[in-house]
Structures
1.
Amino acid sequence: MRGYQIQEDKKSKYAARKAGNMALMMAGGVLIVFMLLMLVANDGTQFLKVVKWHWLLIIVGGVFGLRYIQESNLANALVFFVEKDRIIKTYHTQMLNEGNKYGMRKEERRYGSKPHQEIKITDIERVQISDKRIKIVSKDYNFFNGNGMIVVPAEVNEYEQLKRHFERFIENINA
C-alpha cells in the first residue's frame, strides 16, 4: 500500500486555492444580496451611499484567512492510498486541529458526509484526469454530501505517476 500526501512546498498553494474558492463564493453571494437590496430600495444611489464597500473586503478577507488556516491543516493530514483493488482518501485525525475535527463530526452527523472514503476498483464509474486533479467517481456517488467521489489534487507527491496509473486504468476499462 502506497500513501500519497500533498508536498510540503505545495501545501500553501493548495490551501490558498481551496480558501480562495470559498471566499469567491461568499463574495458572490454577498454581492447578490447587495444588488437585491439596491433593487428593493426606492433609489439605488442612496443605497450605494449607505453601503460601506470596504466592509465587504474585510469580511471576505477574514473568511479567506480563517479558511486558509483550516485548509492548510487539512492538507497536512490528508493522505491518499492507491492499492490494487481500491483507492482510499483519509485524514490522520491526530494531526487535525479541533476546528476541523468538529467540522468533520458535524458534517457526518448532519449530512452523512464521510471524510474517510474508500472506492473499490470494481465500483468506479468514471475517472477524469486533468493537469490540476484526478477525479474518481464511484457508482454510488452522492452529489449532496460528496460520498463516492475522491479528488486527488495535483499537489500530491508523484502526481505524474498517479496520472499515468489512472490513464492505464482507463485504457484497460475501455479495451
Note: The first strand starts at residue 2 and ends at 5.
2.
Amino acid sequence: MTGIAISLQKMRKAILSAGDQTLREWQQLKKSLLDRHLVITHLLDSLPNNSVSNFDRNMLSEANTIAEASVRKIEPSSADADDFARIAADQNDCAERLSYLTAGILLKPELMKIRSIKGCLKGLTECEQKIDEAASIYNTAVIAFQTRMESRRAKFVSLFRIKTPTFCELHCGCTGNSSSVRMSL
C-alpha cells in the first residue's frame, strides 16, 4: 500500500510542477505581449500630427488599449478557453491595425527618416520575434501539462481533488493571423 501512496505522491508533484512551469511560461509570454503594446504606444506618440490617417491611428490606439487590458487582467490559473480566445482575438485585431498603420508609414519616406519611428519599427520586429518564441514555449508547456493530466494515473490522482488550472494554448499571430485556442482538459 505504501508503494501506491508514494507513486501517487510523485504523480501529484509532477502535475503541480507541470502547472507551475506553464504559469512561468505564461508570465514570459505576457511580458513579451506587454512589451509590444508599449512599443506601439511609443510609435503612436512618435508620429507627427496628420502624418498618417487619423482613422488608422485612432483605431490602432483603441485596439492596443483593449489588447493590453485583456493581457493584464487574465489570470491563467482560473481562465477558461473563452478568456484565452478573447486575448487571441484582441491581439490579432491589434496586429491587423498595426499592419495597416506601418504600411502607411513605410509609404512615406519622410516618416522613415524620423529616428524614433525607425527605432519603434525595429523594436516591433524584435517584440514579434520574442512573442513568437514565448508563445511557442508556452504552448509546449500547455501540451506537456495536458499530457500529464490525460494519463491514467493523473485521472486517478484527480479523484483526490488536486486543484489544477485549465490551461489553454494561445495562438495569436504578430501579423494578424487568425486566432485559435485549444483547451486542456
Note: The CA atoms of residues 32 and 44 lie 19 Å apart.
3.
Amino acid sequence: MNAKKILFGLASTLLALTSVAHLLGHFATEAVGNNPTENQIYSLITTYIWNVAGTELTLWQLFRGYSLVFAALLAFVGVLNLAVLPGSTRGLLNRITAVDLAFLGLLLGISLRHFPTPPTYAFALIITLYLLSLMVGNGGSQES
C-alpha cells in the first residue's frame, strides 16, 4: 500500500475512532452539578419541556439526540472512506479527501468556538493527515 493510501486510511480510522470517543463521553454517567447554580441549570434542562416543531422535548433530550447524530456522522464518513480505500485510484482519493477537508474544516471552525479542546485537537490531527495524503504520491499515473 502506498503512502497516500496509508495516510488516508489512518485519517479515516481516526475519524471513526473520534466517533467512538464521542460516544464514550455521550454514554458516560451524567454528572450532577457541583453547586446549587449548576444543579438548578441541570434540573431545568432535564425537566423543562418545550414544544419543538410539534414535539415535546427537554433541552437535554435535544442535546443528546444531536450528540448521537454527530457521532453517527463521524463514524459514517470514516467507515465510508475506509470502504472505498482498497480499490480507489489517486484521483478518487484526492476528490474524496477534498470533500473530507471541507467537512472537517467546517467542524474545526465550529469546534474552535463551541467545543472543549479534545475534539478540536482530533479534527486538527485528522485534517493534517488528510492534507499529507494529498501532498504525497501525486505524480505519475492516476491508476495507482
Note: The longest strand covers residues 49-52.
